[in-house]
Design a protein that fits this description.
- The chain is an alpha+beta fold.
- It has 2 helices and 12 strands.
- It has helices spanning 2-16, 65-78; strands spanning 22-25, 39-41, 49-56, 83-86, 92-94, 103-105, 108-113, 133-134, 141-143, 152-154, 163-165, 172-174.
- The strands form 4 sheets. Strands 1-3-7-4-2 form a 5-stranded mixed beta sheet, with helices on one face. A 3-stranded antiparallel beta sheet has the order 8-9-10, with no helix packed on it. It has a two-stranded antiparallel sheet with strand order 5-6.
- Strand 5 (92-94) and strand 6 form a beta hairpin.
- The radius of gyration is 21 Å and the shape is elongated.
Length: 176
């Protein structure tokens, strides 16, 4: 019930508010990550985390919740967040004739996980995932860094720097 109420408040706020997303720092920012890396959580997480910033929602800018969430994930990604969630303590109804809601305000918290560092937010310059080796004379094929039998993997649909999975070991590697 509370979860539905929070999502309803968030939906109404996304539709009824106006203005750009605002980042309010709450801690040190981390290295930027992709928007896809930032998870949207429908409630505060159960595992340990640290709040690195607060994002105020945009106003009258998005037609769907998905558009607004993606915009907020993009802002959080610039600061290296692992996830965002709507702070349930911040919803407020303001004014309106006859008790109808006129404006709803809330905020999202951008967080990083407190446990092991994320492969995308690690402060180490060395990548967490190993990079495969290209097969000489066979464009689009690589040797897996995990497979000791020297089998080829077709990565022709992947751009350099993307992650791929070794089909024999199910381990992730970076495409060269």
């Amino acid at each position: 019930m509370l979860k539905n109420a929070i999502l309803t408040v968030a939906l109404m706020a996304f539709i009824s508010c106006g203005g750009p997303e605002m980042w309010i720092p709450q801690g040190n920012s981390h290295r930027a990550v992709t928007r896809e890396h930032v998870q949207f959580l429908d409630s505060p997480p159960q595992r340990q985390y640290t709040v690195i910033g607060i994002i105020t929602p945009p106003s009258r800018k998005y037609k769907t919740v998905a558009e607004a969430v993606n915009a907020m994930r993009k802002v959080a990604a610039k600061h290296g967040a692992d996830a965002i969630y709507i702070d349930p303590q911040t919803g407020s109804w303001r004014g309106g004739s006859g008790g109808s809601p006129r404006d709803i305000s809330f905020r999202a918290k951008a967080i990083v996980w407190s446990s092991a560092p994320s492969p995308l937010t690690s402060s180490s310059a060395k990548p967490i995932f190993p990079t495969a080796k290209a097969v000489p004379g066979k464009p689009g094929y690589v040797f897996s860094p995990f497979d000791t039998k020297g089998r080829y993997i077709d990565v022709s649909g992947y751009a350099p720097g993307n992650k791929a999975k070794d089909p024999w070991t199910n381990k992730i590697f970076i495409v060269p």
